[in-house]
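Thread amino acids onto this structure.
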């Protein structure tokens, strides 16, 4: 099957670079609403059989124009909500953003037990996202499914589950609002990334540019080490 992993439209918290992960979260800015309205045309070539959104308001608002244009319902699932910032919620300082990003990118590197204070660990976060993907795969085994989710959740899941997306690639490549990561495969056979924000996923890592919002930003600091090492959280 084919999965379209779509980041939500721009929110006020993206503009302020806040770690805003709690339910229900903010709505969309004027630009975010225009980004959502542009999705049906952007995805006109995709034969979407099912559409999912997280339990956060911004993903549901982003999915609404696509659902209306295709005449399909939006299936709301908590499993694809943003990775919890825990005690860092609504902070925007560089130290907090660094701690958040380096912690969540430690999960696909193998350190799934690592946890932000007051937040979830990698085992919990990946399991809930996997459950929604498995549900979609069972219902639409050979179709295309769109999941409107969040920047960090998409990037971390892709790094953990797509065989050709390394941790370094996902950490260094930003994902703009309404950016799409396309993967193909199944929960049983595994996943291969076909494109990342319109660019074919290469076999090697490369540097990316940061966008306006913590979940879509590149990881600050030195290069991530091998899977046995923790990415640095120092300033």
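Threaded sequence (235 positions):
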């Amino acid at each position: 099957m084919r999965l379209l992993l779509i980041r939500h439209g721009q929110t006020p918290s993206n503009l302020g670079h806040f770690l805003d992960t709690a339910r229900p979260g903010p709505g969309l800015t004027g630009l975010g609403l225009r980004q959502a309205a542009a999705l049906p045309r952007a995805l006109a070539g995709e034969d979407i059989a099912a559409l999912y959104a997280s339990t956060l308001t911004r993903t549901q608002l982003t999915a609404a124009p696509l659902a209306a244009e295709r005449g399909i319902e939006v299936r709301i699932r908590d499993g694809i909500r943003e990775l919890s910032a825990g005690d860092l919620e609504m902070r925007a300082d560089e130290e907090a953003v660094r701690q958040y990003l380096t912690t969540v990118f430690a999960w696909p590197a193998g350190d799934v037990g690592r946890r932000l204070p007051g937040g979830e660990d990698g085992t919990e976060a990946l399991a809930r996202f996997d459950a929604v993907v498995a549900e979609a795969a069972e219902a639409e085994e050979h179709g295309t499914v769109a999941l409107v989710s969040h920047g960090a959740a998409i990037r971390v899941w892709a790094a953990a589950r797509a065989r050709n997306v390394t941790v370094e690639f996902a950490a260094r490549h930003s994902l703009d609002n309404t950016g799409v990561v396309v993967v193909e495969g199944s929960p049983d056979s595994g996943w291969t990334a076909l494109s990342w924000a319109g660019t074919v996923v290469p076999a090697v890592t490369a540097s990316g540019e940061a966008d306006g919002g913590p979940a879509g930003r590149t990881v600050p600091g030195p290069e991530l080490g091998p899977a046995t090492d923790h990415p640095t959280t120092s300033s």
